[in-house]
Amino acid sequence: MIKRKICIVTGSRAEYGLLYWIIKSVNELSELELQLVVTGMHLSPEFGLTYKFIEADGFPITQKVDMLTTSDSAMGIAKSIGRGTSALGQVFEDLKPDLILILGDRFELLAVASAALVSRVPLGHIHGGEITEGAFDEAIRHAITKMAHLHFASTEVYRKRIIQLGENPRHVFNVGAPGIDNIRCLDLLDRPSLEKELGIDLGERSLLVTWHPVTWEPGQTEFQFQCLLEVLKKLDDIKLIFTKANADNEGRQINTMIDSFVGANAGRAVVFASLGQVRYLSTLKLVSGVIGNSSSGIIEAPSVGTGTVNIGSRQGGRIQASSVIDCEPSLEAIEMAIDKLFDPEFMQSVKNVINPYDQGGASKKIVDVLHSCPLGGILKKKFFDISFTEGNR
């Protein structure tokens, strides 16, 4: 039997966590052959050498592709994309996959999609059709949609947007968010075990703080994040668990500020380059709330009954549950949002909130398509024109 070779590419700790059950299923199915390519932040000591988490999970890494430069400037990011595109082109030539699968919108994935396109290998893409107005990730996401051939959207609205971009509805699937499968399937830690892992007592009130650069607002990173830190400094009864920023422009600036804050607030604040999925989701579930601008506060947090303060424009435009509180990146707005987050009535309401991304079994739905979808003739796409189609019904 000839196995269908599925090449899954991952470049960051968060994205790998969302792909975990897909990777596991592909690796275990006798009809499929897993090719796992690891790149980006996974290979950087600065970001925790998270490829070791993948190895600890027992997955065979087929190829490591070092693409990050030591700079998070615009030029540094552009060079990283170029390095990645060149190296991945050679990887795909050597591996000859039948299908490449990626998730999300980071710049590393633009290199993957570009190399896949010119290598004439079908591309599957997860989490297309979404909007994040504050980051150039949105443009990358939509660009990948036009280079991809199979699309796995997390809501029906996003499925329709992918079709609006000209993609054939037969190849666009509404599956939900695969990251939520982790909440259903992983054995999360109880509070005593988590506190031991984190090295901190969560106390009566605690916050998980996740902040990433707002790449469409260059030069504003320090000011916006400092506003949050100033508010948190005054709330000295709240325990804080920080996760470090990613490798986007100005990400290192954020990480330096986090280290300085945690150093000045020892005993009530800790920081991690990477928590890993079990510790991260356990923290997300057991803290009083999550604050920052990460997608996890919008997509995963509602499914564990945790409220979110979403600051600024980075996630602007994303569909969200009623457990998400939006606010501007100013001292007064952040203070008001935190007050609402800790309001007993609000905290009770988030326990039964409906998560629009939680449809159940997203990973299985994706793997079913990877296994069964015909790939013959899929490379040469025709633009699906909605207005023309509707006008000729």
Question: Keywords for this structure?
Answer:
16% strand; 393 residues; globular; six-stranded parallel beta sheet; Rossmann fold; 16 helices; 2 domains; 13 strands; alpha/beta; seven-stranded parallel beta sheet
Quick overview:
With 393 residues, this protein is of the alpha/beta class.
Task: Write structural notes for this entry.
- By secondary structure, this protein is α/β, with parallel strands linked by helices.
- The protein has two domains: 4-178 and 361-391, 3-Layer(aba) Sandwich (Rossmann fold); 188-352, Glycogen Phosphorylase B (Rossmann fold, 3-Layer(aba) Sandwich), CATH 3.40.50.2000.
- The protein has helices at 13-28, 51-56, 74-95, 107-119, 137-147, 156-164, 180-185, 191-198, 221-234, 251-264, 276-286, 296-299, 331-341, 344-349, 362-372, 386-391, and strands at 4-10, 32-39, 63-65, 99-103, 123-126, 150-153, 172-174, 206-210, 239-243, 269-272, 289-292, 307-311, 324-327.
- Helix 9 links the parallel strand 8 and strand 9.
- Helix 1 packs across helix 15.
- The radius of gyration is 21 Å and the shape is globular.
- The chain starts with a strand and ends with a helix.
Percent in helix: 40-55%
CATH architectural arrangement of the largest domain:
3-Layer(aba) Sandwich
Order the strands across the largest sheet as they lie in space.
3-2-1-4-5-6-7
Count of discrete domains? 2
Listing every helix as H and every strand as E from the N terminus to the C terminus, the arrangement reads EHEHEHEHEHEHEHHEHEHEHEHEEHHHH
Q: Name the CATH homologous superfamily of the largest domain.
A: Glycogen Phosphorylase B
What name does CATH use for the topology of the largest domain? Rossmann fold
Radius of gyration: 21 Å
Number of H/I helices: 16
Which range does the strand content fall in? 15-25%
**What structural category characterises the helix and strand content?**
alpha/beta
**Biggest pleated-sheet summary:** 7 strands, parallel
Query: In angstroms, what separates the terminal alpha carbons?
Result: 43 Å
> Got a strand count?
13
What would the principal axes of the Cα set say about the shape? globular
CATH class of the largest domain: Alpha Beta
Poorly predicted ranges: none
How much is the average pLDDT? 93
